[in-house]
Amino acid sequence: MKIDTIELARRIRIQSLKMVNKARASHIGSALSISDIIAVLYGEVMRVDPSTPQWDERDRFLLSKGHACVAVYSVLAELGYICKEELLTYGDDWSPMMNHISHKVPGVEFSTGSLGHGLPFGVGKALAAKRKGMAWKTYVLLSDGELDEGSNWEALMFAAHHKLDNLVAIIDYNKIQSLSSVHDTLALEPLTDKFSAFGWQVSEVDGHDHFQLVTAFDAESPKGVPKIIIAHTIKGKGVSFMENSVLWHYRPPSDEQLGQALKELANA
């Protein structure tokens, strides 16, 4: 079944906004910036089967920026891993849908919260697949601010050394961290040169352009070379008053703001 990934991304944004509003939670800006990436991965790129979440040959997806979990919970509901009604329990006491992504939710491979854990774990998954002769790939989505963590750079070296060409990392490069811009907190550039120097195949795309994303995911890397995609995104993408604003890293939308945001997405 072919999935309209643009419509899927719109629905992810709508569900994410509703969840954060109800829970009075944080990180909606981060979820909105990755919605297109998530839609393309689940709608067109990865081999997954919602009816069998533990299918041995599935591709593995890891959200290293675990605070943006509502985007992943939303796509899992849209594809049928979980019931949409369950999304309304997000952030509630005893709900498996915690405020950072939880493996207690069907379809989630790994719980993350402390930044810098996803890529090292993904490297281990990719190495395991290689040694078992399995064909599935591992995809890891990281934040840009998360690259401040040294554990990621150790993982980058390890993956290149072990020729993990079954590993794909994606950087959500929205250029805003929790309290300030990435540039003012700890500048990352020249990022492409750094990744190349670590032995990875690097591409840069507009992280909201689905054609560019699919093309980058489908592009063949040289044998034995892991792939990394720098996705230039906009924090809060899709909601005008949230875009490129550090305020929406922690602030939940009020009921009035939710209504305005949903109206904008309805007309998108």
From TrEMBL:
Pfam assignment, any one: Transketolase_N
InterPro entries per the UniProt record, alphabetical: THDP-binding (IPR029061), Transketolase_N (IPR005474)
Keyword Lipid metabolism (UniProt): no
Cofactor: thiamine diphosphate
Domain Transketolase N-terminal stretches: 8-257
Keyword tags: Thiamine pyrophosphate
Family from the record: Belongs to the transketolase family.
PANTHER family named among the record's database cross-references: TRANSKETOLASE N-TERMINAL SECTION-RELATED
Protein name as annotated: Transketolase
